[in-house]
Amino acid sequence: MAVPITTLQPQLVQAFQHIITHGQFSAAYVFAGPAGTGKQALATWIAQRLFCQNLQDGAPCGHCPECQRILSGNHPDVLTLATTTQSIKVADVRALKEEMSKSGVEGANRVFIIPDADKMTPGAANSLLKFYEEPVPGMVIILTTAAKNQLLPTILSRAQVINFPQPARSAVMAQLEAGGATKADAALVAHLTADAQAGSELLATGLSTQRERVVQWLSKVVARDPEAFVLVQTQLLPVAKTPVAAKQIVSLIALAYADALNRHYAVTDDLAYGQEPVIGQLAELAARQLTAGLTAALQAQVRLTQNVSFQAAVGALAIQLIS
Ligand SMILES: [Zn+2]
């Protein structure tokens, strides 16, 4: 279930609508932004906009043979560099350039898309650079990246850089709910990621169980029950088996304290845990204690990245929170 790019990035769609209508296309674009912000989808939209045989109010129809071929990756004039390896090498770019040099119909549009362009080796980037300095009329290269800073400055300076804004949390929530998530799950996930796709995967891999365990654990913490320390091993550790899961548990704890601080100050919109009762109890603590709790959780997160074990990091956190 993907949200249409016209909903996800309406301003960017409008901008390109204008650019294409007025023939102001550049030869090279860099689409920069986090995963889930619609970079590839906009590139596809642009290609469809250029080739669609049945434009609807200036927008591609999405159904005609041209639109369909672009969508399925079978359009001869829309090429996406596909690489399964960790880096994009000179040979990959060379193959793409060979395709580019095959002249299509004169003046006709051709679109070349290089996803994850930050994976280009310096050699590959330089090889591409030579080509995009001498653009062929009608040809456009679109590089997408989630790590703009890792592109060569020369690649960036000779392209139009389009920054993709992070979608609003409410939009991410709506996307997740449309995909079948409950309101409570959607709210929590949208606090962990702005990528609805990644969010759905979090839910599929047990986020709800993690939430339950963290809530259970917090009920001991709020009661200053030393059992909180024991539960780290018996309740939290079993759902923190991978580094990603471990990091997530600690994020959930940090979010609980952030929510509690908000509720302490009667800020009730945009809560990760909604009206979860245990967070309400936590919110009755002094603001100073809640801030200290949040800080401690964030420190535990840093310690996880420094190869401290989950048990050690969260065990220490438990002791800090109940003391
Ligand atoms: Zn069409």
Automatic annotation (TrEMBL):
Pfam families: DNA_pol3_delta2
InterPro entries: DNA_pol_HolB, DNA_Rep/Repair_Clamp_Loader, P-loop_NTPase
One GO biological process term: DNA-templated DNA replication
GO MF annotation: an example: 3'-5' exonuclease activity
Top-level division of the source organism's lineage: Bacteria
NCBIfam families, per the entry: holB
PANTHER family per record: DNA POLYMERASE III SUBUNIT DELTA (PTHR11669:SF8), REPLICATION FACTOR C / DNA POLYMERASE III GAMMA-TAU SUBUNIT (PTHR11669)
Protein name: DNA polymerase III delta subunit
Organism of origin: Lacticaseibacillus nasuensis JCM 17158
